[in-house]
């Protein structure tokens, strides 16, 4: 994505898009990180001369380097099953309540901490000299410089959100060597410059240096930076493969109630805290589409959404936060089984499955927005939906209906925009606080507004929520 920035205006252009296909070898699900890196180089070539480069990606996953700086094996995908049972193993050393008090991170089976527990005793970890999170790994290959960007580091479950630094309270008893991580870097910091060989490979033949700027390298941190909010009375939902729903705070909430509600305190751009809950997101639908395609029929998404809009509302809902939906494959059968277990009718057609997924997501959005307000005392009067799901009109309307609040949808490319905003400010092209960067977004981008309706009525959403409990 190429951003073009001037005071008060911001534009984004997609110049290259490449697939991210996980590969299973020897029973383990991996990322094809070299293919991703090649995609980055192709993207740089398509972009042409730029003033700065910034990288963000999904969180928690990492590559290990040996003492020569060579990558030790392909990074393992967070949806791999290697972390099964790791929460219990870690819990024997550090009980869940202590872990939460120290890190404020919600329980997700794939937090880097549990991945490192799973990797314990492997030859690869024993041989590792350094650990680089995915965006930091790509940045290292481009610049030769190594660092650990803070917003993404906060998803490892090894950071104390009060000090915004590594937590020895967690690392030491678990035998995790924090020297594996290169020094922390903050969004806006300089991150080196593209190596001459890389410039040549990317077809950037001019003499100009191309700096890499550290951004909120966790995609969700960049996406939240690009929430076009006008004041602080807002909740956000960054929807795409995941729905990340919550609030922006200036201090973490580490209470026991917060832990039980499984809210996380990830770190954001400019000293903020992303107080949110992970919800499975459009992954549920993406995986249904993949299954139907493998069975030889792929209904068009637009038609499917039109049919879903006409399907019976709230006929069957599932808990869209349940880790049982984390792994790939056979999603329609797993959704049907969850409906059956809940004593609800099983969806039969692709349209009914789609409606079940979207109703379930809207319900989970509502629950997260309600819980976040209750747990923090921070009230909201608007819900912002950013990320790819902002294009899904039915999901936006259902979320407005379920929450009983107006929804502002867009931008869909929030992560890329948040990334560009931080680079632009570091380069001096924009100035000011997060609030003023957001003002630039509001004046530059079209946003859609959804008012809550009462079909189905609020009571039907409450009844569906009660059914799930
Ligand atoms: C979204 C995301 C999310 C993480 C998950 C691993 O892309 O970064 O914030 O929890 O991927």
Automatic annotation (TrEMBL):
Pfam families linked: FGGY_C, FGGY_N
Domain (Carbohydrate kinase FGGY N-terminal) ranges: 50-224
GO biological process, one term: rhamnose catabolic process
SUPFAM superfamilies documented for this protein: Actin-like ATPase domain (SSF53067)
Entry-linked CDD domains: ASKHA_NBD_FGGY_RhaB-like
Keyword line: ATP-binding, Carbohydrate metabolism, Kinase, Nucleotide-binding, Rhamnose metabolism, Transferase, Xylose metabolism
Domain Carbohydrate kinase FGGY C-terminal, chain residue ranges per copy: 235-427
GO function terms (MF aspect): ATP binding; rhamnulokinase activity
Coiled-coil annotated spans: none
Region of interest called Disordered, as start-end residue ranges on this chain: 448-469
PANTHER family: SUGAR KINASE, XYLULOSE KINASE
Recorded family membership: Belongs to the FGGY kinase family.
Protein name per UniProt: Rhamnulokinase
Species name: Streptomyces armeniacus
């Amino acid at each position: 994505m190429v951003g073009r920035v001037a005071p008060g205006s911001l534009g984004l252009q997609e110049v290259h898009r490449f697939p991210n296909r996980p590969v299973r070898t020897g029973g383990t699900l991996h990322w094809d990180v070299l293919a991703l890196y090649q995609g980055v180089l192709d993207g740089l070539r398509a972009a042409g001369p730029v003033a700065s480069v910034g990288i963000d990606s999904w969180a928690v996953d990492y590559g290990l380097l040996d003492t020569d700086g060579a990558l030790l094996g392909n990074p393992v995908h967070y949806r791999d099953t290697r972390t099964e049972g790791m929460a219990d193993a870690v819990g024997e050393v550090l009980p869940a309540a202590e872990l939460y008090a120290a890190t404020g991170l919600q329980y997700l089976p794939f937090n880097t901490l549990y991945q490192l527990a799973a990797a314990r005793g492997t030859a690869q970890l024993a041989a590792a000299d350094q650990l680089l999170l995915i965006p930091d790994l790509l940045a290292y290959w481009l610049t030769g410089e190594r660092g650990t960007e803070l917003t993404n580091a906060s998803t490892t479950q090894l950071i104390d959100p009060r000090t915004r630094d590594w937590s020895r309270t967690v690392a030491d008893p678990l035998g995790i060597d924090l020297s594996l991580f290169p020094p922390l870097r903050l969004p806006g910091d300089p991150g080196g410059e593209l190596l001459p060989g890389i410039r040549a490979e990317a077809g950037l033949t001019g003499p100009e240096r191309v700096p890499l700027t550290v951004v909120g390298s966790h995609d969700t941190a960049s996406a939240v930076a690009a929430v076009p909010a006008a004041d602080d009375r807002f909740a956000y939902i960054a929807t795409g493969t995941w729905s990340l729903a919550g609030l922006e705070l200036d201090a973490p909430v580490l209470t026991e109630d917060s832990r039980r509600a499984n809210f996380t305190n990830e770190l954001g751009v400019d000293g903020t805290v992303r107080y949110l809950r992970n919800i499975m997101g459009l992954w549920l639908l993406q995986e249904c589409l993949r299954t139907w395609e493998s069975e030889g029929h792929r209904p068009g998404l637009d038609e499917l959404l039109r049919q879903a809009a006409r399907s019976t509302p709230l006929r069957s809902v599932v808990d869209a936060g349940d880790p049982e939906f984390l792994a790939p494959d056979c999603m329609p059968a797993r959704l049907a089984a969850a409906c059956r277990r809940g004593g609800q009718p099983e969806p039969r057609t692709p349209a009914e499955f789609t409606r079940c997924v979207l109703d379930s997501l809207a319900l989970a959005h509502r629950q997260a927005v309600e819980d976040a307000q209750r747990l923090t005392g921070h009230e909201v009067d608007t819900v912002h939906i950013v990320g790819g799901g902002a294009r899904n009109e039915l999901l936006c309307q259902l979320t407005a209906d379920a929450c009983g609040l107006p929804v502002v949808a867009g931008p869909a490319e929030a992560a890329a925009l948040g990334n560009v905003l931080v680079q632009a400010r570091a380069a001096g092209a924009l100035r000011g606080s997060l609030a003023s960067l957001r003002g630039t977004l509001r004046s530059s981008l079209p946003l859609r507004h959804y008012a809550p309706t009462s079909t189905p009525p609020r009571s039907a959403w409450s009844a569906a929520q009660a059914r799930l409990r």
